[in-house]
Design brief:
Blueprint (H helix, E strand, L loop, with lengths): L1 E5 L5 E12 L2 E13 L2 E5 L4 E5 L6 E9 L5 E9 L2 E12 H6 L7 E14 L2 E15 L2 E15 L5 E10 L2 E11 L5 E12 L13 E15 L4 E15 L4 E5 L3 E5 L2 E10 L5 E9 L7 E16 L7 E16 L2 E10 L4 E5 L8 H4 L26 E18 L7 E14 L5 E16 L7 E5 L4 E7 L4
Parallel strand pairs: 23-25, 24-25
Antiparallel strand pairs: 1-2, 2-3, 3-4, 3-5, 4-6, 5-6, 6-7, 7-8, 8-9, 9-10, 10-11, 11-12, 12-13, 13-14, 14-15, 15-16, 16-17, 16-18, 17-19, 18-19, 19-20, 20-21, 21-22, 22-23, 22-24, 25-26, 26-27, 27-28, 27-29
């Protein structure tokens, strides 16, 4: 039997075969060719490689297979030993490139780094267990560097029918232990989990690579402990988490929140917040009160209130990633209540007059005719409105939101339509909007924003780049679709 894999460029990613023979009391296996390929890398395999599977009841396994990288120092080795009923099987992997290996594994995530494994399977007197270590040097996940990570672990089944699975292990980051896990899972009946997790000052930055599209960036340190016990459909969580300089930043929208250095406690699967503070770019915090109850994972309950006055949410300069930059100040009062299938959001946001924000429409040029209709449309008000617009199908999201957005007179907003900053709209003004979001995924807005001063600069296909002054008292009225005022 021989397995070969070719990519779309017809490059060979896997070439490994095995010969099976049946001789009296043993099945024999030998691997070929002399230079097998794994993950697009050539290896040299020992000519006398073998694996013996004995047919008798205790079924010992013996063997030795050793592969050495032809072009690097990677290696893979298997050793099977049996001494008077004591079975040992050793697996060693050294500096195996994850990047090329993931290319030949279906559904494998995009990873890279040097994989090192030193693991042993042992069996003695009716018991068996697996222990060892796994390290990844210079680990990269989805194009984002994580660093050097590793784990030491032990797995052993026990009990009648080997129904209890025990696991012990730890996780290290840059050579320092950051997490420890001890626990067992009993498969009898509905299943029962009994596990303890401890976090030893885990750097939040090591999690950034696993955030989809790096929409937020984490920093700071998190410590704590968590006990998880109970049937799998009714797990009970108890423990605590200690935040130390933890920040959550959105590089695209220039929002950064720093969590108060405090201890968050979890009791009976409920995490409670009491005047827990979240700091933006200024000294005035947002205060969070309430709880999240996840005793029923299929229907988590939450009741949260957030409030703050003169909170500086944004203070940022333009960067290559910026979608929004500038300064944003506001008064905020919001409430989130319900369960994970039916969430009610109510609140009020008051944008203060010292706000000065710029929004960048990425990859958009106002002078392009095919983009013009999305920004400026000339309307003959003597004609009836067009009712033929196609609406996107709604999706059930379980969120019901009603928010009032008030903009105090004097707040400044700028929208840039082109990368050279030559096409834009600049306005100062105020007004009020009532925003609603339905469980079907429909966003609506009712209200009016009035311009006290402003200008617009853009070019049409038949009109060169020109600056237009917006008359004081001009307004934008919203009567439904937020994106079609």
């Amino acid at each position: 039997m021989r397995l070969q894999f070719f990519d779309k460029k017809n490059e060979k990613g896997i070439d490994l075969g095995v010969h099976f023979t049946d001789q009296d009391s043993v099945y024999n296996a030998t691997f070929y060719p002399e230079e097998p390929i794994l993950g697009f890398r050539k290896f040299a395999i020992n000519e006398d490689n073998y694996v013996h599977f004995y047919k008798r009841k205790d079924a010992p396994i013996t063997g030795y297979v050793h592969l050495e990288g032809k072009d690097d120092n990677s290696e893979i080795a298997f050793t099977g030993l049996n001494n008077e009923g004591h079975q040992r099987a050793l697996v060693e992997v050294g500096n195996l490139g994850l990047g090329d290996l993931c290319k030949v594994l279906p559904f494998a995530p995009n990873m890279d780094g040097g994989l090192n494994v030193d693991a042993a399977y042992q069996e003695d007197d009716g018991r068996f267990w697996v222990d060892g270590m796994v390290n990844i040097d210079n680990f990269v996940y989805d194009g984002m560097k994580v660093g050097n990570v590793g784990s030491m672990f032990t797995y052993e089944p026990e009990g009648e029918g080997l129904s209890i699975h025990k696991v012990e292990g730890d996780i290290s980051y840059e050579g320092i232990d950051v997490a420890t896990l001890n626990g067992s899972y009993n498969t009898t009946g509905d299943g029962y989990l009994d596990a303890d997790l401890r976090l030893h000052d885990i750097p939040m930055k090591m999690l950034n690579a696993f955030v989809p599209d790096q929409m937020v960036v984490l920093d700071g340190v998190l410590a704590g402990a968590m006990s998880v016990k109970g049937p799998t459909d009714r797990l009970q969580f108890d423990g605590f988490a200690v935040t130390d300089s933890v920040t959550v930043t959105s590089p695209y929208y220039s929002v950064s929140l720093r969590l108060e250095d405090d201890t968050l406690r979890v009791a009976d699967s409920k995490i409670s917040f009491e005047n827990f503070k979240l700091y933006g770019a200024g000294q005035n915090p947002l205060s969070l009160d309430g709880y999240v109850d996840f005793s029923n994972m299929n229907k988590m309950l939450l009741s949260l209130q957030m409030s703050g006055r003169n909170v500086k949410l944004i203070e940022a300069k333009r960067t290559a990633k910026s979608v929004v930059f500038g300064d944003a100040y506001g008064d905020i009062r919001a409430r989130v209540k319900g369960d994970s299938n039916d969430i009610s959001v109510r609140g009020y946001i008051n944008v203060l007059p010292n706000t000065n924000l710029t929004y960048i429409m990425d990859d958009t040029t106002i002078s392009q005719g095919d983009r013009l209709d999305d920004i400026v449309t000339f309307v003959n008000f003597e004609l009836p409105p067009d009712t033929t617009a196609v609406k996107e199908p709604a999706t059930i999201l379980g969120v019901n939101m009603r928010m009032t957005l008030n903009v105090e007179e004097g707040a400044k907003f700028r929208v840039e339509f082109s990368a050279d900053k030559q096409s834009y709209i600049n306005v100062r003004g105020g007004g009020s909007l009532n925003l609603t979001y339905t469980p079907e995924g429909v966003m609506n807005a009712q209200g009016r924003l009035t311009v006290s001063e402003g200008e617009m600069k853009y070019a049409l296909q038949i009109i060169p780049l020109k600056t237009f002054t917006i008359a004081p008292g001009s307004s934008v009225e919203f009567t439904g679709d937020l994106y079609n005022p």
